[in-house]
Amino acid sequence: MLSKSGKLLLLLIGSIDLSTSQKSNNGNQLMQSNFPFVINTWPFVKATEKAWQVLEKTDDALLSVEQGCSMCEELRCDGTVGWGGSPDENGETTLDALIMDGTKHDAGSVAGLKRIKNAISVARAVMEHTKHTLLVGDAATQFAVEMGFKEQSLNHIDSVNRYLKWLNSSCQPNFRLSVSPNPMTNCGPYEPVEPSKKSDDKINVNINQKSHDTIGMIAVNSQGNIAVGTSTNGAAHKIPGRVGDSPIIGSGAYVDNEIGAACGTGDGDVLMKFLPSYQTVESMRNGMSPSEASEDALRRIVKKYPKFMGAIVAVDKNGRHGAACHGLDEFQFSYASRKTNGINVEKVKCI
């Protein structure tokens, strides 16, 4: 058992490196003492608990991720996951989600999903009932209805009030650039003007934990098979049609069943330019620990966008987990395994 000082060290570096392993039947080195295992971005403990219950009962990593993210969609975690949150410029809530199965290296995702509450489950339907990977907008809604999902309003009194407050605040914050009238002080309609050459203009300074809290979840079953998923309602007051990193494979989440998995959260418009989840997994392939790989992926981003805000959680095939963050004082995430007594919330100091 680790001492209190040992636990503090783990808190600061954001990883757990367990050394006890044994051979599985197929000869792979698995940290069986730490599997099954579930981890997700942010302290969305009810989602973690749901995923863990499913995993313990079924040993199905894919179902665990789907049900865990679904719980966050139902609970409207922080108002940034699921229905009734993050209205766009038209006051409409739309949903993005991704699910990926490490055993088959297959995936499904939806973006800009309208009038359907079950985004992560529709993403799974895309994976299992089409030869495609990503469906978007009203066409994704049509597909969902064909698959038996119920079409209904995604509005909630919270999202309506948030939208009205935004309108009464001269449409601030605003994601428009190089348009007239000045989007920093005026609502639209807008017309284009000469594009700005300032790179800082591309940083979404209003992206923070309460305005963009994607849930990214990783589940590993008792045999070391991995699944990942994400779900979000995107950036509040986004331009209609905007899609962030969450439903993009390699950006919002990624898994290689032979190596491990990673999920990201934060400023999706920046994250998706770097495929940080894919990069994290590739760095683990090259020998980095989950924490080292997560930090390395973020440093690549920060080198180009110093004011970026975001975080990554990762798990490797040896059962170690880790996280890294930037643009916050600290980042919290929750997880469960055979070694935990219930759901644990861990935090890391940001780089």
Explain this structure.
It is a single chain. The chain has 351 residues and is of the alpha+beta class. Helices cover 28% and strands 24% of the residues. The protein contains nine helices and 17 strands. An eight-stranded mixed sheet has the order 7-6-5-11-10-4-16-17. A five-stranded antiparallel sheet has the order 1-15-14-13-12, with helices on both faces. A hairpin with a 5-residue loop joins strand 10 and strand 11 (226-232). The longest helix has 15 residues, at 61-75. 53% of the residues are buried. The model is unreliable at 1-30 (pLDDT under 50).
The count of DSSP E runs of length 2 or more, i.e. the number of strands, is 17
Strand content: 15-25%
The gyration radius over C-alpha positions equals: 20 Å
Give the N-to-C terminal Cα separation. Answer: 28 Å
Mean pLDDT: 90
What structural category arises from helix and sheet content?
Answer: alpha+beta
- From the spread of the alpha carbons, the general shape counts as globular
Percent of residues in helices comes to 25-40%
Low-confidence stretches: 1-30
Helix and strand element order: HEEEEHHEEHEHHEEEEEEHHHEEEE
Number of helices: 9
Largest sheet strand order: 7-6-5-11-10-4-16-17
Largest sheet: 8 strands, mixed
Short structural description:
The protein is α+β, with helices and mostly antiparallel strands and 351 residues long. It has helices spanning 4-13, 45-58, 61-75, 119-129, 137-146, 157-167, 268-271, 276-285, 290-304; strands at residues 15-16, 22-23, 29-30, 37-41, 95-101, 106-113, 134-136, 179-180, 191-192, 215-220, 226-232, 253-256, 260-266, 310-316, 321-326, 330-337, 344-349.
